[in-house]
Each structure stands twice: as structure tokens, then as C-alpha cells.
């Protein structure tokens, strides 16, 4: 499988396929409001080099304006429908912003990006109205890579996503408790069994944590990646799971 995946931390990944670089939910901050980056160095300048950027929803740890400002002017950025109205700063970054919704397909060089649903509160919190859906994306080139964004488990997930080779699945969060619309290691393993890709990379865990809460349920910060590996081995033993460290990359196995 010619695709290469680099995990920079949280939900930020570079997916390189067919010579084209796609960046997901860029977050390059040492601190964001009450959150502090507790693991992994800040991503290097190369992390901001991308042909296109996929933004899954409007929460500020996924749509982060200072991180988007590090992109080259004119970079193509796909955002949920209604994002420009909810986050006016997007229009001032000099980027080529395209609003999308589930069912849309967008060409990015030799790649096709198909937009799928996610089960998550997509608003610009804390007070934003329900204008924009949370999204996932399937990047199709020589391989098919599913970036789930931030989502809970929903019945139609596998049918809507369709056949994929690699799944980038959230397995945790940034606080002591996960609310509705999130995957923990158990639910992520269930999603993996339903999706049945050749390979998976757990993301969205072990990077940011609320300041002052280091001693409250610390296993929720440290353990989701390892727990997902164990649960995936039981529920989806045919899937190769790659638990990456921050800044590490992998080229999963051959395309089916």
C-alpha cells in the first residue's frame, strides 16, 4: 500500500498518497485555552506542508485558526458547511476554503476526497449554534484512507464509509471523561471490526490534557492507544494496528 501516514498528535495526521499530501485537523499549539500539550514535541514546519487540509468539525482543537495560519497561502482547506459564517476568521487567512457536507466529493490532484458523516457535536463551542455537521473523510488514491475526525459509533458507519484500506480512528480525548459522540478504545475496536480495513492507526489521545487535572483519571490520558491495540486484536484480529508515537510514520501493507 503506497500510502504513508504520519501522526503529529491529537487528530493531526499527514496522509501522503500518489505524491499528494493531505493534512487532517492541524493543531500545532503548545497550549490551547485550558489544555496543555503533555506529550510529543510540537510538530516541525514540514507538518504544515500540505496540498489540502481536511477539517472535521468546528471545535477549536480541530479548527484552530493559528495552526491554519501556518499553511501556505492558497492551500485548499475543506471545512464543514457553514464554517465560514460560524468562524469568520477563516476568510482572513488567505486559504482556498471549500465548504462540504456528507456525500460531496472533491478532487485534490490525483486524489478524490469523499465526505462522510460523523456522530459528534460539530458546533463552534462554547456557544455556537448547530449550523455545521461534524464530518469524516475518505481519501482515495492508490489507497483508500478513512479519517474519522471525532465521532461516536453509529449503525451506518461501515455502509457509509465503504471499503477502506487504512482507518485513522479516534480512541480517546483530552479530558478525564468522554461524552456522547466519542469513541473510546472499546467502541473504536467495534468500529474497526465493522469497517474491516487492512490497517488502522489510533489517534486523538495522549497529547493534550487540562491544566491542573494531571492526577484525575490519568489512565484516560496514557492508556487508550494500548487498550485499543488489545481490544482490536480480539475484535478485529485480521487488521494490522499501528500505534505510532508523536511524529512517527508508517506505510501500512499492500492494497487489496
From TrEMBL:
SMART domains found in the cross-reference section: Lactamase_B
Highest taxon in the source lineage: Bacteria
SUPFAM superfamilies noted in UniProt: Metallo-hydrolase/oxidoreductase
UniProt-recorded name of the protein: MBL fold metallo-hydrolase
Gene3D superfamilies: Ribonuclease Z/Hydroxyacylglutathione hydrolase-like (3.60.15.10)
PANTHER family: UPF0173 METAL-DEPENDENT HYDROLASE MJ1163, UPF0173 METAL-DEPENDENT HYDROLASE MJ1163-RELATED
InterPro entries: Metallo-B-lactamas (IPR001279), RibonucZ/Hydroxyglut_hydro (IPR036866), UPF0173_UPF0282_UlaG_hydrolase (IPR050114)
Ranges of residues in domain Metallo-beta-lactamase: 9-204
Organism of derivation: Streptomyces yaizuensis
Pfam families hit by this protein: Lactamase_B_2
Amino acid at each position: 500500500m503506497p500510502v504513508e501516514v504520519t501522526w503529529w498528535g491529537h487528530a493531526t495526521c499527514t496522509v501522503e498518497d500518489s505524491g499528494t499530501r493531505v493534512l487532517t485537523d492541524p493543531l500545532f499549539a503548545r497550549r490551547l485555552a485550558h489544555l496543555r500539550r503533555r506529550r510529543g514535541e510540537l510538530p516541525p514546519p514540514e507538518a504544515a506542508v500540505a496540498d489540502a487540509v481536511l477539517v472535521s468539525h468546528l471545535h477549536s482543537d480541530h479548527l484552530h485558526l493559528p495552526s491554519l495560519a501556518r499553511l501556505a497561502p492558497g492551500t485548499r482547506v475543506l471545512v464543514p458547511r457553514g464554517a465560514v459564517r460560524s468562524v469568520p476568521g477563516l476568510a482572513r487567512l488567505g486559504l482556498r476554503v471549500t465548504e462540504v457536507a456528507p456525500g460531496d466529493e472533491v478532487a485534490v490532484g490525483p486524489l478524490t476526497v469523499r465526505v462522510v458523516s460523523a456522530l459528534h457535536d460539530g458546533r463552534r463551542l462554547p456557544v455556537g449554534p448547530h449550523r455545521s455537521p461534524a464530518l469524516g473523510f475518505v481519501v482515495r488514491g492508490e489507497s483508500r484512507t478513512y479519517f474519522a475526525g471525532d465521532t461516536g459509533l453509529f449503525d451506518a458507519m461501515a455502509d457509509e464509509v465503504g471499503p477502506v484500506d487504512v482507518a485513522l480512528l479516534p480512541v480517546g480525548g483530552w479530558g478525564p471523561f468522554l461524552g456522547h459522540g466519542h469513541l473510546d478504545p472499546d467502541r473504536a475496536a467495534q468500529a474497526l471490526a465493522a469497517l474491516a480495513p487492512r490497517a488502522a492507526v489510533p489517534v486523538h489521545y495522549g497529547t493534550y490534557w487540562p491544566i491542573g487535572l494531571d492526577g484525575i483519571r490519568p489512565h484516560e490520558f496514557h492508556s487508550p492507544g494500548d487498550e485499543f491495540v488489545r481490544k482490536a486484536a480480539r475484535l478485529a484480529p485480521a487488521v494490522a494496528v499501528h500505534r505510532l508515537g508523536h511524529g512517527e510514520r508508517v506505510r501500512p501493507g499492500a492494497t487489496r
